[in-house]
Amino acid sequence: MGGPIRCGVSRRVALIAPAMATPARYYAPFAAWLASQDVRAVVLEHRGSASRADMKAYGGDLLDWFDDARDALDHVVRESAEPVTWIGHSLGAQMLPFVDHESLTRVVSVASGTGWVGHLPGTMRWTAPVLMRSIGPLAMRVAGYYPGRSLRIMDDIPTGVMRQWSRWCLDPAYLGVDVPDAETRFAQVKTPMTVLSFTDDELMSLAATNDLHDRFVNADQTRQRYTPAQLDVDRMGHHGFFRSRHAGLWEELVLPYVARD
């Protein structure tokens, strides 16, 4: 597990689990704002993501990242007695069945769903398989990691992570490809969830959002889907919610769902 970012000391805690190919520092403004609201924020850092050298050296995959998330939550729970809220952005919400979710009081899922290519919006449904079957593997053989920044398709990702994620995305079972008990794991999650999604998300369609959250069959969920106009913004997209220019939305859409003592 990479070093987490911690902000604030309070009577409640939020653990922020990042999206794929998104560094912990991206969430620093959001974490600092939580601290200003008396919420201690801890942001995960995906291993093997600190530099290109780290990516080349990292031999793990997505399930190793999920194990890291489990260990991080265990550490947070041991460190304090405050109620813990899990804030999962995209991939970060997919990790829930693999952590001690019984120790969580609330979950906030942001711009999250499965990555199955059949649910991708627009032309990505056809171009993503080409990336995952041809362009990506070739680029990884040459670079020693997935050079998303150079390809201008996502960001840089360790090879093992990209290979496993591609395998998941090419199958409607998604992570069930490598996790035989996935259905049972999802069904065991009973933590109340608030699900935020956005109509202009270029990576996550409504079908993908529903595909993931329908698997949490025993979790009480409130699903909220917004257009940019409803939020009075020009664009939200997949990553926009955590940008500092949207700080005015955090008090309304996140803070009420961060668990209190």
UniProtKB/TrEMBL annotation:
UniProt entry keywords in alphabetical sequence: Hydrolase
Which InterPro entries does this UniProt record tie to the protein? AB_hydrolase_fold (IPR029058), Hydrolase_4 (IPR022742), UCP037442_abhydr (IPR017208)
| Protein name stated in the entry | Alpha/beta fold hydrolase
Keyword Hydrolase listed? The answer is yes
In the record, what terms sit under GO molecular function?
Answer: hydrolase activity
Start and end residues of each Serine aminopeptidase S33 domain: 11-95
